UniProtKB/TrEMBL annotation:
The enzyme's E.C. designation: 2.6.1.57
Protein's UniProt keywords contain Cytoplasm: yes
Top enzyme class: transferase
Protein name as annotated: aromatic-amino-acid transaminase
GO cellular component, one term: cytoplasm
Reaction equations catalysed: an aromatic L-alpha-amino acid + 2-oxoglutarate = an aromatic oxo-acid + L-glutamate
Organism classification: Eukaryota, Fungi, Dikarya, Ascomycota, Saccharomycotina
Native source organism of the sequence: [Candida] subhashii
Location in or out of the cell: Cytoplasm
PANTHER family, A to Z: AMINOTRANSFERASE (PTHR42790), AROMATIC_AMINOADIPATE AMINOTRANSFERASE 1 (PTHR42790:SF21)
Length: 493
């Protein structure tokens, strides 16, 4: 998986928080390495005897690659595979690489079940080809927990971090609750602007931020995606100013073709094989990282199911070791049921079958994106509403010129009041999209940092975030038609 020609990561332990630096190894967890060794009578831990676990076997029906009827097709006798995972190791077929229930339901590896971690390392090497030697991968219970642990590992109350000027509200609240200041960096329709990041850092006063938190692909809420060129520029800035890039990437595999109104041309742009699929992915920050200053937060939430609550962090081993020490006394590890079932599914599919699944997702999300943008183009008033079709993720935005609202002067030329009026009218019409102001970063450093001036042509533009992921196509069209009606009512059209 690795090569001797790869460099070692850079020592970045000086960026750790006081909490992370002071955290000691758990003696009890160290003792667990002797559990199950031949000839060892283990009397040292509070591990219940697995005979008392009331779960003897779990079974799951899963679809069989290559998912020729589509990934949303009903599972039938003709297209299904069956996973059977027994409590007792000897009842499981060794070729299936199963994590038996006696092990997965026991206190176990904080890093994650070795079989599952090995699969994910192979997957990471296949997709990202991390370019330094000493990288590693640990399990989490999803990107929300990964981000919380990242903040605790690197930040102390009062520290500042860099974030996109519009960002995932839950991620912002996680930082605020820990007393971490979020400093916005300007964006455009293509994501975070490298020149704006350079400007913020060049004019920084005082203790510099340790982290840049970014959702580079299918950004939440804007739907924007960073190009390879921008990612390279941002990575250079991170090296120059010595901070860590945290790439939160649950939507990475929901990349798709550029939108075209030509429906006939859409068919010819589809990805048909594994090589085309992998080559079409925008290279990740972790694939550019030669110093070990990228932490990649990955998850199955958007590609398998949110409720499995399983994610993983890729990064340099020295830094991830501090996460493990934190997890030993917090989450302990992801659910044993989840690990056994996910491991069973992934080894049943193999790396090839998982790529087939991701290719199928790409096709489905491309179709839903196209329908959403087609509907916006057809029903929304063109002299008031503009949009940029996303090339990844689950979200799209519509930009609305608040200054053209008939009550703009009455509202004191306040775009937020126009936003509220449209939101409330849309609710009356039976359609919910989320106001962009809900995602606005309002943090500020002390003393205030210099920021780029607001583009005057954009200052009265508001936006709403929609998703094409949550409903069937017919409901997607109806919902957008209702929202378009609300806009027309508000603008007296």
């Amino acid at each position: 998986m690795t090569s001797n020609t790869k460099p070692q990561s850079k020592n970045l332990r000086h960026l750790l928080s006081d909490e992370a630096k002071s955290r000691q190894n758990s003696p009890l967890k160290c003792a667990f390495r002797f559990f199950g060794q031949p000839g060892m009578t283990f009397l040292g831990g509070g591990l219940p005897l697995s005979n008392y676990f009331p779960f003897d076997k779990i079974t799951a029906d899963i679809p069989t690659p290559s998912f020729e009827n589509g990934i949303g097709a009903q599972i039938t006798e003709e297209n299904k595979s069956v996973i059977e995972i027994f409590k007792r190791k000897e009842l499981n077929d060794p070729k299936d690489h199963h994590v038996e229930l006696a092990r997965s339901l026991q206190y176990g590896y904080t890093e994650g079940a070795p079989e599952l971690i090995n699969y994910l390392k192979e997957h990471t090497d296949l997709i990202h080809k991390v370019p330094y030697e000493d990288w590693d991968l640990i399990a989490t219970v999803g990107n929300t927990e990964s981000w919380d642990s990242t903040l605790r590992t690197f930040c102390t109350r009062g520290d500042c971090i860099l974030v996109e000027e519009y960002s995932f509200s839950s991620a912002l609240e996680t930082a605020h609750a820990q007393g971490v200041n979020t400093i916005p960096v300007s964006m455009d329709e293509h994501g975070l602007i490298p020149q704006a990041l350079e400007e913020v850092m060049a004019n920084w006063i005082g203790n510099q931020p340790k982290l840049l938190y970014t959702i580079p692909t299918g950004q939440n809420p804007t739907g924007s995606s960073l190009s390879f060129e921008r990612r390279k520029e941002i990575y250079k800035i991170a090296c120059k100013y010595d901070f860590i890039i945290v790439e939160d990437e649950p939507y990475y595999f929901l990349q798709m073709e550029s939108y075209t109104k030509d429906k006939a041309a859409r068919e010819g742009k589809a990805v048909h094989n594994h090589e085309e699929f992998v080559d079409a992915l925008v290279p990740s920050f972790i694939s550019l990282d030669v110093e070990g200053r990228v932490l990649r937060l990955d998850s199955f939430s958007k590609v398998l199911a949110p409720g499995v609550r399983f994610g993983w962090i890729v990064g340099q081993a020295t830094l991830l070791e501090r996460f493990v020490r934190l997890h030993e006394v917090t989450i302990q590890g992801p659910s044993g049921f989840t690990q056994s079932l996910l491991n069973g599914l992934l080894y049943k599919w193999g790396q090839s079958g998982y790529l087939d699944w991701l290719i199928g997702l790409r096709a489905e999300y491309t179709k839903k994106r196209d329908v959403a943008i087609d509907t916006v183009a057809e029903f929304f008033p063109k002299d008031i509403v503009t949009y940029t079709p996303p090339v990844a993720g689950m979200f799209f935005t519509i930009d609305i010129d608040a200054s053209k609202h008939p009550k703009f002067e009455e509202f004191g030329q306040d775009p937020n009041k126009v936003e509220t009026a449209i939101y409330e009218q849309a609710i009356k019409q039976g359609s919910l999209m989320i106001p962009g102001s809900w995602f606005k970063v309002d943090g500020q450093s002390s003393p205030p940092q210099k920021v780029l001036p607001v583009n005057s042509s954009k200052k009265n533009i508001i936006f709403f975030r929609g998703t094409y992921a949550a409903v069937p196509l017919d409901q997607l069209i109806i919902g957008l038609q209702k929202f378009a009606k609300a806009v027309k009512i508000e603008y007296e059209l």
